[in-house]
Amino acid sequence: MTNSFLLNRVLLKFGDPDPKLAGNLSAVTTTPDGSLWLGSDEFISIERLQPTDHCIYDQHQAVPVGDFVSLVDDESEIDIEGMDYADGYLWLVGSHSVKRKQPKGKKVKKDVQRLATITSDANRYLLARIPVVEGKLVKTAKSITAGALPPSQDKNPLMTALAKDEHIAPFLTIPSKDNGLDIEGLAVAEDKVFLGLRGPVLRGWAIILELELEENKLGTLSLKALDKDIYYRKHFVDLNGLGVRDLCFHNEDLLILAGPTMVLSGAMQIFRLKDAVEHGNDTIWSQDSDALNVLFNLPLTMGCDFAEGITLFSYLGEDNLLVVYDRPSVSRIPDEYAVFADIFRLPT
């Protein structure tokens, strides 16, 4: 099925010897030097690509996150689900979720037991920012320093705050793909950090968290109090029953990639929430308001091409939207170390 908003494709070429990388992209952003930064849900590094030709990104560099901020261990995946660049920093967030083991299709008894087993990876509880200088990540640069919320085995200060939340607390121990807590979007504007939740979706309402961070000590960030004992705001948005899969800003407006909360093929749509930085307080936005509207639908391919990351992308002199995919279709994979992303036109 054709899409009138689809403008072109971008070829992403990876040099990583692990062919899983090109097929497991979950986050993307750009930096002023023209680099494309990508995250995966199965690695503890972030990936840098540079433009080498028209709509081709190459010269892959895998950059270990642990070189810049503290991780709980050197083995478990971060499950990077959101990235953004703002004010000299590259931001990234892990899913903050627990997971249910999958059946392997060998022995029924063991597969049944695997479906009852819930685990967590300590590195998933990461919210961090790393300075970028001339396209490279550094620990410090002038007045900016790499930092993160201090992680522990299964929580951080954000999780501690959410454990008291009347809407979200009941979902903290539910696996991400079962409508449990799953952070999958990140966008930063001014001093505000927006986190989009794939789950939970409550009676069809998706949730975006808004918070601010401050440097507590060198290398450590903390939640800033927005009011007395209030460390985040909640924005409930009507995304046609879908959850948030990624976020990015276009001027003052927040662009939302929405997709199914559960593990299934279904509608994927791009929404616009107007003047998101200015809303303040807890809010609820239906599509009956002028502030929230659908921009376009993404093409649906059953069983593959799950849109996971979006970022603004300059193409033909205009701001457009770049979309990267998890589990890409065969038509997107020219070889095992490369994959095509899509450029979509942003309607005015």
Structural description of this entry:
The protein is mainly β and 348 residues long. It has one domain: Tachylectin-2, Chain A (5 Propeller), CATH 2.115.10. The protein has two helices and 28 strands. The chain has helices at residues 108-114, 157-162; strands at 6-13, 25-30, 36-40, 45-53, 56-64, 80-86, 89-94, 99-100, 118-119, 127-133, 136-137, 140-141, 144-145, 147-148, 182-189, 192-202, 205-211, 213-217, 220-223, 233-238, 243-250, 253-259, 269-273, 283-285, 292-297, 306-315, 318-326, 338-345. The chain has an eight-stranded mixed β-sheet with strand order 2-3-4-5-1-28-27-26, with no helix packed on it. Strands 6, 7, 10, 11 and 14 form a five-stranded antiparallel β-sheet that branches. A five-stranded mixed β-sheet has the order 15-16-17-20-24, with no helix packed on it.
Entry keywords:
348 residues, mainly beta, Tachylectin-2, Chain A, 48% strand, globular
CATH architectural category: 5 Propeller
Oligomer: single chain
Number of folding domains? 1
Strand content: over 45%
Strand order of the largest sheet: 2-3-4-5-1-28-27-26
The helix/strand order is EEEEEEEEHEEEEEEHEEEEEEEEEEEEEE
At the fold tier of CATH, the topology name is Tachylectin-2, Chain A
Estimated radius of gyration: 19 Å
CATH top level label: Mainly Beta
How helix-rich are the residues, as a percent range?
under 10%
Category by helix and strand content: mainly beta
Q: How can the largest sheet be summarized?
A: 8 strands, mixed
Total count of strands: 28
For the termini, the CA-CA separation is 23 Å
The global form is globular
Could you name the ranges where pLDDT drops below 50 across 5 or more consecutive residues?
A: none
Average pLDDT level: 93
Helical stretch tally: 2
